[in-house]
């Protein structure tokens, strides 16, 4: 997902899907994307996915 040649809209959709999936194993990758992706929309989607996963796991 970090490949900058992939259209940013695809990366946004992928980050959202990962948030929906909700696996805590994805946290390190999403954190990296949230900090380093060149596109602000992708970084924002990754941050939202992180929040979604963390809220879901906190509720368990």
UniProtKB/TrEMBL annotation:
Pfam families: HEAT_2. It comes from the Bacteria. SUPFAM superfamilies: ARM repeat. This is HEAT domain protein repeat-containing protein. It comes from Methylomirabilis oxygeniifera.
